[in-house]
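Much of our argument rests on the idea that a fold can be written as discrete symbols. Part of our work consisted of pairing the sequence of a single chain with a tokenised description of its backbone. No coordinates are needed to read the tokens, only the vocabulary itself. The record that follows shows the chain in one-letter code together with its fold in token form.
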Amino acid sequence: MTEATAEQRRRRILDAAVDCFAERGLHATTMQDICRRAGTSPGAVYSWYPSKEAIVDAVAAERHEHERQLLATALAGTDPRTALCSFLDAYFEWLSDPAERLRRRVSVQVWAESLVNERLQPSVREGIGQRALAWDAIRAGQAAGAVTTAADADGIARLVLAVLQGFILQQAWEPDLDIEGYRRAADLVVDALTPPPAP
């Protein structure tokens, strides 16, 4: 099997799992359901992923990597306001993709399940922990007077994370939620966090 073929099979398994989880939920979905949706044998699925939790981990790992890339790209700039706006623009653009909306429905299920399933907690913590990537940039912005000092860096990072998580949760309930309207409201948060320099 070529590397490209192996990747196609892996992608098909993950996409099938997301479809099943989104339609039936984590508990009701079986590995057999995933096999049928992927059009592959149980052996092929288990050779990649030994359990549903392993599939959830793989889907989350892909999302976390993309989030890291978005954040790294945004933080490459020197202006905190531009960096924050660029990050939010890219993130909301990502959330406008119907396929990503489906994956985020699964994310909401995983968030809830992780409260009682210790096996899923590391994956959720990894996503939440990515706010640490922004701490240095926020602190540097505060030192330069470009980011408010009315809250510490951790509080600001948590607030931005809450804006995104809140949208994801609302979008799971309301798939046609107005992204642009929410994004404009998020700009008000950016304005509060990055006040213009004093004259």
Q: What stands out?
A: The chain has a mean pLDDT of 91. The domain at 53-193 is CATH 1.10.357.10 (Tetracycline Repressor; domain 2). The two ends are 65 Å apart (CA to CA). The chain has ten helices and no strands.
